[in-house]
Prior knowledge:
The protein is an alpha+beta fold. The protein has nine helices and 14 strands. It folds into two domains: 164 residues, Ribosomal Protein S5, domain 2 (2-Layer Sandwich); 140 residues, 2-Layer Sandwich (Alpha-Beta Plaits). Helices cover 36% and strands 24% of the residues. Helix 2 crosses helix 3. The chain binds ligand 2P0.
Amino acid sequence: MKSEWVRAHTNIALIKYWGKENEELIIPMNNSLSLTLDAFYTETKVTFDENLKTDEFYLDDMIQDLAELEKVKTVLNIVRGKAGIKARAKVESHNHVPTAAGLASSASGLAALAGAASLAAGLDLSERELSKLARRGSGSASRSIYGGFAEWQKGTNDDTSYAVPIDDANWDIGMLFIVVNDKKKEVSSREGMLRTVKTSPFYQGWLNTLDADLSAIKDAIDQQDLHAVGAIAERNALKMHATTLGANPPFTYWSPDSMKAMDAVRDLREKGYSVHFTMDAGPNVKLICKQSQLAEIKSHLLKDFSESQLIEAKPGPGLHVVSKLSN
Ligand code: 2P0
């Protein structure tokens, strides 16, 4: 059995995953498409140990409680089943997210766990199998197996729902995060999407437009048309966020500073920059722009936001083993 550190990078969806067809297996209602980033990642090592009485999960050297352990256990149990082992596991994880970013990432965390747990159990899984395994922990993790652009194809069952690589993103594309610190307790994405599917009359409208968004963004990626990629992603994000206002009870992930950030993006567009935004289940705003213009765009944003609120990111790699932990 090989206990090694495995690294997975987080990804940001440009076509969002929002809603499950099957809660237990995490089969989504729609295909989604993301860009994996270099700036945020998780490194994880799993050790199966006959002497352990229960599974243990340490995040940044701190033992985690049962609630945190739940997604981890789902993945460990599938791995134990596949490998025919009974031993409990010690899971050690380190999250590399710039300080104060407040971007908890189940995508990188569960993808790194899928890689580390299968390696420790002696399983030699293909990327497709790893994507399915990561999906069972957290849907968005299915896409973090790959670098660059990846599409999670919804499929119809446990075996047919997985992500595939779309493009290595080795062209002039970057992201810039505007970190909005909001003290308000968020509705978790798991709860938020469930509530929206069950109660929002706008949900069907959202679903109706997804095939068109997905096919348009894939064409734009093929043509390396950054402006179209950003415009489609921005429209798609706004539609997703619109569904939450129709939910019962209604909710929003936006804060006043999120709107300030969106306005700043529109101002930059008026100045002639090709820049768009997307947002996930939280108040932070993520800009899609040319990698070669990241520094220039950041300097404009420094008028409204502090240096520590602005984090640059470039396309990042897929799941891989690292010889030692990064600092
Ligand atoms: C996404 N989000 O596509 C969407 C957009 C949030 C908004 O995937 O319940 O943590 O573990 O499958 O993957 C966040 O949801 O949810 C997410 P579960 P996950 O990135």
